[in-house]
Amino acid sequence: MIESEKWRDFDISFNIHPIKRDLLIKEDLAAVKQQMFLLLHFGYNDIPFHPEIGTDIRSYLFDSFTELRARTAQKSIELLIRNFVKRVDLIDVLVAQDRHTITIDIIFKMKNSIVAHTYQVYLKRIQ
Predict the structure, then answer these.
(1) Range of the domain at 46
(2) For 1-20, what is the mean pLDDT?
(3) How many domains does the chain have?
(4) How many CB atoms lie under 10 A from the CB of residue 43?
(5) CATH number for the domain including 87?
(6) What is the pLDDT of residues 53-106, one digit of tens each?
């Protein structure tokens, strides 16, 4: 039997396992969702020496959100996922806006799976 590849990342909370006294680890789907979370919340130039990594989705909250802006956001997120999340096959990115909230749905498959998953991000403008 061929064993599928497992992906592991440190949990960004940096909590310690109560028994092993080691850093908590996220595996597979949880690790990928954590990576997407981080990449989506980084702005351009937030990572030293890598100005190309990031998005400007937070700025979309304060601009008028038109169909063109939604398409631009969708393309920038697709490019980010395709270039920097090598563990997934991207299926689709959906961007929608409701009054003060932007909803981003990222639909993807893990490289070692045939099951599609959705990662949903809500950005809310607080007034």
Answers:
(1) 8-124
(2) 71
(3) 1
(4) 14
(5) 3.10.450.40
(6) 888 777 777 777 788 888 988 999 999 999 988 889 999 999 988 878 889 999
pLDDT band at 1 (very low <50, low <70, confident <90, very high): very low
Amino acid at 87: R
In a domain, 38, yes or no: yes
Q: Is residue 14 part of a domain?
A: yes
SS3 category, 86: coil
Identify the CA nearest to 26 among candidates 15, 42, 40: 15
Q: What is the C-alpha to C-alpha distance for residues 93 and 110, in angstroms, rounded to an integer?
A: 15
Structure-token pair, residue 106: 């990222």
d(CA 9, CA 31): 6
Amino acid at 108: F
Strands 101-110 and 116-124: antiparallel
Q: Is residue 71 part of a domain?
A: yes
